[in-house]
Structure formats: structure tokens, C-alpha cells
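Standup notes
- HV: blocked on the assembly model, inputs below
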Amino acid sequence: MNSETTYLRSYTLKKEQIPPVISEDIDDYERESLKKKIKELLDQQEAVIVSHYYTDSDLQILADETGGCVSDSLDMARFGNQSSAKTLIVCGVRFMGETAKILNPEKRILMPDMDANCSLDLGCPEDEFSKFCDENPEHVVVVYANTSAAVKARADWMVTSGSAVDVINYLKKKNKKIIWAPDKYLGEYVQKKSGAEMLIWQGSCIVHEEFKGKELASLRKNHPDAKVLVHPESPSSVIEQADMVGSTTEIIRAFGDMNAKKFIVATDKGIFHKMKELANNKIIMEAPTAGKGATCTSCAHCPWMAMNSLKKLLHVLKTGENEIFVEDQIISSAKNSIEKLLKFTSNNQSIGLANDA
Ligand code: 13P
Ligand code: SF4
């Protein structure tokens, strides 16, 4: 077996590595009382909530009400970087908290649950990944945001779903060969779009991987007027049927902008909260996860994102537990790959990175 086949094997998680999807059951009285206490502590501690769209709607509403942000991974990183708050409470998954710390080492970063991880991060161990990079030294190393701080430290570039195609197109123009990790579906999508030469790590998102192409085709037949919005972590059989492929923010934007009444959405259903807020008169249908090969480990809801809750948020504000720390050495290397992306996106690809790819 050569190095390519050794490292480009499938990184499938064991069942016991995937937690069940659990949501917090609280009544209106408890919700309001938790929110009131959280708001007081946020004020006292000069803290803001930085939340992803996949978290519980209670957290998204609270983030909006308190001057925090609810967004995709790219804008979570940007917001944290620009915020003057002393503490960022990252409601999302581990890599989002680590990215916030890398960009803002002087700030205190707290997370409601330290076990909130991501199958892509878990499927790309730093030691194996580094070995793979070492064996392919002529390649530029591009990693998705959904990776550990240590993997980002090994990379030349970090990208997000909203920026991956632009960055790879940019590198392709410079005739660079690319190592891509860890999401194989996003990697294949970007490769098709750009035509770049890419070695693709074989990780996957357990949530998006469940969407089924054949069943989606049947649903579309029954609803020919529906537009299909797809996150690029989905399999190619699903992506191929999309009217629009993009990051979570781009999906929400397309939902608002497209002149249609009905939408089939292939991403975590936590996003429906923002979509309904934007256009309550439009119909949202979940892309099918059932059908041939269905396992429904998550039923289109990320079990790690679901670990975030109001109760846990209050607990970390009260106790200061669950602070994210990243080693200084890792911060300085990982910062390069993340800041390169922030610079690239803010300059809209017009920067002169001639010797910096
Ligand atoms: P976005 O950056 O598009 O929000 O994606 C993050 C993610 O984890 C999707 O599963
Ligand atoms: Fe990771 Fe998938 Fe959850 Fe996103 S939805 S955080 S990619 S496991």
C-alpha cells in the first residue's frame, strides 16, 4: 500500500463515538428565568454569545437579543475577531471555540459543553495527518475549518464552506497541487468546480452524509416547484440535484432571495429557525435521510451542536468552567492559516499572495 492509499482510507466513526441527539426540555417560565440570569452575567462579565445556526433556537434568540452573533463558521470567526468583548461564549462545536481562541488569545473563550465535537475533526487525527503531509511535501495543505487547532497548525490555509471554492481556484491558477482535508464530499465538490489536482482525506460529516440522492429525486418529482438548497458536506448524488450549493449563511440568503414558495433543504434543521424568521410564508421541507442505506444516527441534526443549551450556558457563566486553551506554539502556526483566509475573503481575492501560497 502506498502512502496515498494508507491515508486516504475512509474515516468512519464507531457508533459509540456518536452521542445521541438530546434537547433540553424546559417550560416558558424556566426559559425566561434562565435568559434573565444569563443576560445579567453577560453584562457583568463583558461577554457575548457567538453561536452557530445549528444550535437550539433559544440560544440563537438570546445571542441576537444580547448583541452577539448567529452565523456560519466564517462569520463566527470574523465576529469574534472584531468584538471588543472580554469573553466570547462560543455556542457551537469544539473547533469553533478553538478558532476563536487562536484569533483572540487575549480573550476568555468559554463553551457550554466541552464534549461538543464534530465527526470531521474526530476523523482527522493530527499525527496521521501530519505524516501524510510530510510524505507529500510538494502539495499546499488546505484544511477545512472543521479540524483541530493542531491540524490547522500543520496547514498552509484554513477554508470554510463559504470560501473553499474561491481559495482552491486561486491556488489552481498558481498551479499548486493540493492536499485537502478532512471532508471528502466537500473536497470532491471543490475539485469538480475548480479542476485542481487534489489529494483528498476521506472524512465525512455524519449529519450531511445521511442525505439520500434517490429519495431526494422522488421528493422533487412530487414537488417540482420546490428549490433545492444543499450544504456541500452532502454526498455528490445530493449536490448534483441542487439549485444552490453553499454555506449555511448562503443557504439562508438564497432562501430569502429566491422567487419560490417551497424549498427542500439538505443541512442541519437547526437552520430552519433563521429561515422562518426571514420568510415565514415560505415552505421548508427536510431533504430525505431515510431510504436505502439509512441509519439515521442523527436525522439531520448534529448531536454535538445539540449539546449546547441555556442551562449549560448559565452554568459556565456562573463557574467559569469549560474555558478553551490552545498551546502558544499551536496558536502561532494555526493563526497563519486562519488569518490568510480572513485576509483573502476581506480583500475579495485581490491580494498579492504570489509567494505565499
Ligand atoms: P458552515 O460554515 O457552512 O456554517 O458549516 C459549518 C458546519 O459545521 C456545517 O456542518
Ligand atoms: Fe461537524 Fe457535521 Fe456537526 Fe457540522 S453538522 S459540526 S460538520 S458533525
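- HV (later): unblocked. Residues 105 and 331 are 8 Å apart (CA to CA). Residues 72-74, 146, 160-161, 205, 231, 233, 247-248 surround 1,3-dihydroxyacetonephosphate (ligand 1) (CB under 6 Å).
- Next: hand off to the docking folks.
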